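The records we work with from here on pair a chain with its fold. These numbers are not coordinates but entries in a learned vocabulary of local backbone shapes. To see the layout at work, look at the sequence and tokens printed below.
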Amino acid sequence: MFNLFLQRLRHATDLTCVELEVFEELCRQARDIGAKKYLAREGDEIASFPVVLSGWAARYQILRNGARQITRLLLPGDAFYFDASPNGTAIEEVVTLSPCRVVTIPYSDMERTINRFPLIGEAMLQYGRMENAVQSSWIVNIGRRDALERMAHLLCETHYRLQIIDGVKDGQFHFPLTQDDLADVLGLTPVHINRKLQQLRQENLITLRSKQLTIEDLRGLQQIAGFDSAYLAPQTRPAPAYERRPVAA
């Protein structure tokens, strides 16, 4: 399977064949995990860098009343836990939303790799900036957009992020989220989610059938959302002239 996380990193920074091969080696010990399985629990010690090579997962927090707020969707090729509490423990739960293939890279291995190949560190930095930009966009989405705009913006963002890894074919992509999942992402009730999905269908903007979502009118959806993909694009600047170090035999 092609490493989709590497594809995301290549979107951020040009990597040489040597750097790609080194990173591929870090991802050899992947494992398959079923849907609705925990990848991390709040309070777990964070000593590794997990990457979702395929499938969908989510980061979330549980409120005292039992309500769930999803704070990040992890799409194929995404990594998680750039952040932790000051004592190095997980501050959120992470669960698979569909069957996933996951690899866990120890921080010590990642640190050695970045020290030898600084351009990998640059790519990781760019990816982390994109993660922060998505987080900020989600805060605005829930805080200032109405229900229809929230839904449209999430679909536009997901479409863009999946295009990076060639996950969109003729406007169609896998969309395993349930209405309960969408409610927990957008801070709405499942009934409200159903109404807004129906509205988007009736306006011939989307088709959603058997966990396959087709965007029929991307421009129209973007206009409803006020979507501008600039926050998802890597910074355009020349790559640093790092010294290439030979790989040990």
Summary: The longest helix spans residues 118-144. The longest strand covers residues 48-54. The mean pLDDT is 90. Residues 23 and 45 are 24 Å apart (CA to CA).
